[in-house]
Amino acid sequence: MTQGSDDYRDSGLQFPDSFVFGSATASYQVEGAVKDDGRQPSIWDTFSHTPGKIWNGDTGDVADDHYHRLDADLDLMKQLGLHAYRFSIAWPRVIPTGRGKVNLPGADFYSRLVDGLLERDITPVATLYHWDLPQVLEDEGGWPNRETAYAFADYAAAVGERLGDRVAVWTTLNEPWCSAYLGYASGAHAPGRTDGADALRAVHHLNLGHGLALQALRATVANDEAQYSVTLNLHVLRPEGDTGDEAVRQIDALGNRAFTHPMLKGEYPADLLEDTKSVTDWSFVQPGDLDTINQPIDILGVNYYSTNRVRLWDGSSERQHADGHKDVGASPWPAADRVEFLEQPGPYTEMGWNIEPEGLYDLLVSLHDEFPEQPLMVTENGAAFPDVVSPDSEGAAVHDADRIDYLRRHITAVHRALQDGVDLRGYFVWSLLDNFEWGFGYSKRFGIVRVDYDTLERLPKDSAGWYSELASSRRIPE
Ligand code: IFM
């Protein structure tokens, strides 16, 4: 399949020697072993075991069994020549009761993971929170409860003490937009609640948790070279028609500036507070919170997959994709109930997400324009396609030319942004392995390595070979 014009389909482009090519995964999506070594349930265990929440009733109970296959998976990363590996740490493995005592066997798994990476000369990039909140903390109110932010900081300190001498880059949160809005407004993600005011409280407490965790990490990590970051899934918005600019403003405030402005400027945007005043008065923001949230970060992580086209809905016709996420029931957007998300021109990935590499270029350049001093890193980008396993002289193969084409276009966009002066440090393909794709269970495959969910065997796809060549030469392969 060809994915649009050839503007972003270069080969032979050379990246600087310092540029990092890695791959990413997340704990609940790959680890399995949900009851091993003292781990207790997270909100995703509860949610995935609730009938009707996940495609096919799938759960993360086994996932890729990465917990038991750690050494083989590390060898695979080495074989692919990855420069760095971005993984997340499961809070309910390290502190199963949410706060308090550290579970040593759980913490030890991550210590072995980090050691295994370093032995293979792969840089460890650790995320503290990729959505698996200990269920006990949800039972006390979850992210709408301010206390969760303090518990998160204590957990950050515990991890910082144990891994701080070896982890190169620390990321506090992955995509807090999803945690807040899909978790507490649309209910498509765990814990599956649907209250706009709770979602906005969650936004603030995730932001606060980020700031508190950075303070805790900086106080405990025994490595002056360590870098600190957060990863956001910022929305690339295209205005449609006369009302497009207003629709963009509203979604940009809720989806983007609700995170970037407190974190990088120490303020909530005035228009966000105004737009949401029918939902909440934001009285949960306490004196000093914005200073706590506004900690310096070394890297802003950017996850990018596709774009959104928006306008205001005038009520005259049936509203299209009111929520902007086809996988959700209720709207994830508190107080933006007049915004209409329009069908995007294709081509699309198997998620139904439009393929637009220029969106990645635009996002990187606009972030650089707004925050010129802030180094950036693409911490996720990739695509699900309906992979087919074909017989091959050596057994089996996955000829995923569509994924290679997707990666080539987006990595070309990254190169173009670099050429245009964006301070961009690296790119991480999502994902190393096919894995548990949240509400879609195992039906969507994002990996550059196929996982057979019956045997758990790993099979590098053609895209893995292509990516490996890119990593070794830092040049976009033919
Ligand atoms: O699988 C997810 C990941 O957990 C967060 N970012 C988007 C990916 C694809 O949906």
Outline the structure in words.
This protein has 15 helices and 15 strands. By secondary structure, the protein is α/β, with parallel strands linked by helices. It has one domain: TIM Barrel (Alpha-Beta Barrel). The strands form 4 sheets. It has an 8-stranded parallel barrel with strand order 1-2-3-4-5-7-10-13, surrounded by 5 helices. It has a 3-stranded mixed sheet with strand order 6-8-9. Strands 11-12 form a two-stranded antiparallel sheet. Helix 8 runs antiparallel to helix 9 (196-220) and helix 13 packs parallel to helix 14. It starts with 19 loop residues before the first strand and ends in a 5-residue tail after the last helix. The model has no long low-confidence stretch (mean pLDDT 96). 5-hydroxymethyl-3,4-dihydroxypiperidine binds at residues 26, 29, 175, 303, 380, 430, 437, 446.
The number of distinct helices, counting runs of at least 4 residues, comes to 15
The end-to-end distance, rounded to whole angstroms, is: 17 Å
- Sum up the overall morphology in one term: globular
What fraction strand?
15-25%
Please give the CATH class.
Alpha Beta
Helix-strand category = alpha/beta
| Helical coverage, percent range | 25-40%
Bound molecules: 5-hydroxymethyl-3,4-dihydroxypiperidine
The appropriate CATH architecture is: Alpha-Beta Barrel
Counting structural domains, the number is 1
- Give the strand tally: 15
Spatial ordering of strands, largest sheet: 1-2-3-4-5-7-10-13
**Run of helices and strands:** EHHHEHHEHHEHHEEHHHEEEHEEEHEEEH
Give a quick account of the main beta sheet: strands, pairing sense, barrel closure.
8 strands, parallel, barrel
- CATH level 3 topology: TIM Barrel
Kindly provide the radius of gyration, computed on alpha-carbon positions and rounded to a whole number of angstroms: 21 Å
CATH superfamily, by name, is Glycosidases
Unreliable stretches: none
The overall average pLDDT, rounded, is 96
